[in-house]
Amino acid sequence: MTTLGRTRLADVGTYVAFGVICLFFAGPLLWLVSLSIRTSAEIYVSSINLWPNNPTLENYVAALNNPLFPTYLWNGLKLAVGGAFGAIFFAAPAAYALSRFRFRNKQLAMIGLLAVQMISPLVIMVPLYRYMDRIGLTDSHVGAMMLYIAIAAPLFTWMLKGFLDGIPRSLEEAAMIDGCTRFGAFMRVVLPLSLPGLTSAFVLNAILGWSQFIIPFILISKPNLLPIAVGIFNFQGTYSQTSTQTLAAASVISIVPAVVVFLVLQRFIIGALMSGAVKG
Amino acid sequence: MSQDAVARPAARAAVSDTGVRWRLAERPFVWLAPLALLLVVTYVYPAIDVIRYSFTDATLLNPQYAYTADSYRSVATNPDLPGILWVTLLFVVASVILQLVLGLLVAMVLHRGVKRRLPGVAAVRIIILSAWIVPGVAAGIVWQLMFNEASYGFLNAMLRGAGISPVAWLSDPDIALWSAVIANVWRGTAFSMLLLYAGLVVIPSSLYEAASVDGATPLKQFWYITLPQLRPILLINTVLISIFTLNTFDLILPLTGGGPGRATEVLALYTYNAVFRNFDLSSGAVLAVLLLAISVVFTLIYVRLLPREL
Amino acid sequence: MKKLFPSTLLAGTVLAGFVATAGAQELVTTDRVGSPDAPNVLTMRANPNQSTNSPSPEQKAAFEKVWQEFAEAHPDWQIQFEFFGQDIGGEHARLLEQARAGRAPDCVTVDSFQLALFIDNGVLKPLDDYFSQEEIDDLFPFIREGVTGPDGSIYAWWWGTDLRVLYRNTEIVPEAPQTWEELQAAALKATESGIEGVLFNGGRWEGTTFDWLANFWAQGGSLVDDSGKPIFGEGENREKMLTAINYFKGLVDSGAAPKRVATIKDYNDFNAAAIAGSAAMFFGGHWQHFQLMEAMPEAEFAKWDVSELPGPSADERSTGTGGWTVAAFSDDPAKVEMCANVMREVYMGPANEVIGDLPTRESLFASLPKFQDPYFGKLKEYLVNGHARPGVPIYPEISNQIQIMMGEVLSGTKEPEAALDGAWNRVMDAYGKL
């Protein structure tokens, strides 16, 4: 078989794999979409058919007409993006130190970071609430954001450290020979070079923040401050109401902003990675 | 705080103010301090408080409490604990293995697709990502309807259509846990996929080219190039998803609530229940410490496997 | 970092597209009632179903009307809302924690079975000054007991209740089964035509315990004694528990109920089965009548009827009654009074009309137009056998253990005796720690 033929065959294989992957991952999502365009009467009736008999957009109208819904989305975006962005300020210098310096207990510091990452908010929820309450940071985005940053920072540091390891030191050394301070070299040379790494760590942590549930659940009770991951619960009636279809519509909409942000940044990441590869 | 590997630049000669700042910048501690401070304030302090609570008889109902080690004794002698730990172990190990394997497969397929510039790659990525972003409660509801054992349940309807007898997805205690694993893997794979994909992209293609020239089969290339190159990222990925999975309960809660009986009651859910159902803060704290201890053990094992040079 | 900016901007634009245009001076919004300029602020946390944030469009509109009148009657006040999530148990634990810290909202809708926690912890304000003795005496006895504290004051207004009934497709089961035996026979007969005989809650949630307890109460059983100490695992109460467990186990073992009941933890599952025509009977809540009416074609709905839950014998009957209260947490007497106004003007009566939860006052049952429907006449008869869950702090754990027990028995992992003793021991452990 020719090389071309083999590549073609592999392409077919790739598409078969795409198909299987999509079936597993898209199936339940299509289901969610299907639920979101049903009338309450049809939620259970023709479950086997993805396309309902009387498709309706009313559930989307109902979700969007709830004036709190955009607020939830906005808060979710603000906390997720703010948390990931804030994490840069703590993670970038730390990652730099872990990548560029040699010092005793460095391994310990890396493991310590992991250890903190292991403390789930679930573990500390009650003391955390009492403590944040004492210092007046419940029902505030400042308090919540602080925790989003703290949750994102260790992982951010790990990812960025790995990326920095791949950037040759010669560039910043050259800058320092030219009279730059180390901090200046870090700001003007290292950070711009690590933009792809920063971006992918940013995206990952922003999305983790987007689905963060326990922190806002514990710390925030004012509806105009809630992010979507918690606010979405308000679309689920308690047992005396059937509102699965509205919840489904709200869920579908809530995926959109995150996907959009990801799409935009993803393109940027791939571009950056590719240009890096060409240069390297 | 010994030597820095970077050659000392000439700027060192600069004096006074700049000199002090310059020397400070040479200390790794200075670079690490903001992060350390943040983590101590937000995480370490409450975590120490949890340990303190675990040595009390505190409840949510009673603001007064006394110090005692009874809470540890009662958790240690709790007849349900072995069962819960077993369920947790199965849930975590199965979820982690599946997420790793699936995540790696998907990442490799995607990587190939991107390299070959095959159309449709972006769509696949978005689909997997969406599964990750769906709010936990919605994921729980969707999977509950998929697994539903009534005549209108989706999976069983498909099985029946294919002439296979229906499965008791959630009502059979032995199967319910695996159903929970499937739902969890569905939601969690995207994270592994993203990390591993990033790892694949940075493997120099020259390695593969050289191997091809030497006539190595794709399988051999995978075994001798891809896996070793991915090792650090695989390890960190494993640690992270183990911790995530260990602490997951927001999917199981809407899916099975921990039932039937205790068949799907993982340690995280049990901890949540101890605090929020029984108002038993001290037992909840002991369980939280236990969760922490398990994570530490997990991590130590992985650290042994990590390459020396970090 | 500059490159991050356009994406944020873009996401912002996407979001902005969603933002509905809201009038500046509306008196009723999703999370505020009254003018935003009103000098006095009352914070209120509500179950979304019982507010202008209701997921049901009809009920949302109806609540907006009720609150509009309230806002017009109290122009100096604005009410700012917070909402419960769906994990009611967790929400109440959080509320208690906040009340402790002095940060609870001024006025809160509290689930009736959790009310005792708050009364016992002394975080509620007495309401005797705001309700007349006549109004209090007008409450059904079990309701009055539920809101009265140890000192004889009332600490909440329990404004609506629900109850459990047997739904049946009269085409398949023409006669309403009166006893457990009749029910099982009718269900078995129904399965011959290839459908599910009877459905009930058996999954891991509060409804499983609550619906099933009627069978325990019908025999005269008690979960706790007068001091709130659990007694269900000893002596004749234990026997009654076992009898009630064996009744459900028998339904599943005989095939009268499908095995999947062990997974049902949502009343909507019954609606689904009824609509799909795949079940002959189910134990459900009285409100499902209206859901089925809305969701089914008229001819189909006409086949369905409700009757009292069957008992061990035709004379021993019981049904679980739940419902919601409103309680005041504020230290400010003016806010407590405004909260009492909310109870009186929004919940006592109007909210019953909106949601269909039964009024808790004899006279309101007789006077509110909605409840003159013959359906409610029937429910009122069943309400005589109404039984509320014991308002004691240990109840949530009793319920949790009963749910586990039920799952173990229905899925066949444990025999009833072993499962019950397991539940009993764990409850007593937890009771010792309270």
From TrEMBL, chain A:
The keyword Cell membrane applies. Its main location: membrane. It is found in: Cell membrane. It holds the Pfam family BPD_transp_1. PROSITE patterns: ABC_TM1. It is a multi-pass membrane protein. Gene3D superfamilies: MetI-like. The chain crosses the membrane at residues 12-33, 72-96, 108-129, 141-164, 185-207, 213-235, 247-270. It comes from the Bacteria. Residues 73-265 form the ABC transmembrane type-1 domain. Keywords: Cell membrane, Membrane, Transmembrane, Transmembrane helix, Transport. Belongs to the binding-protein-dependent transport system permease family. This is Carbohydrate ABC transporter permease. It comes from Chelativorans salis.
UniProtKB/TrEMBL annotation, chain B:
The keyword Cell membrane applies. The keyword Membrane applies. PROSITE patterns: ABC_TM1 (PS50928). CDD domains: TM_PBP2. Residues 85-302 form the ABC transmembrane type-1 domain. Its main location: membrane. The chain crosses the membrane at residues 29-48, 84-110, 122-146, 190-211, 232-253, 285-305. It comes from the Bacteria. It is a multi-pass membrane protein. It is found in: Cell membrane. Pfam families: BPD_transp_1. Keywords: Cell membrane, Membrane, Transmembrane, Transmembrane helix, Transport. PANTHER family: BLR7065 PROTEIN, SPERMIDINE_PUTRESCINE TRANSPORT SYSTEM PERMEASE PROTEIN. Belongs to the binding-protein-dependent transport system permease family. This is Sugar ABC transporter permease. It comes from Chelativorans salis.
Automatic annotation (TrEMBL), chain C:
Keywords: Periplasm, Signal, Transport. Residues 1-24 form the signal peptide. It comes from the Bacteria. Pfam families: SBP_bac_1. The keyword Transferase does not apply. PANTHER family: MALTOSE-BINDING PERIPLASMIC PROTEIN, MALTOSE_MALTODEXTRIN-BINDING PERIPLASMIC PROTEIN. This is Extracellular solute-binding protein. It comes from Chelativorans salis.
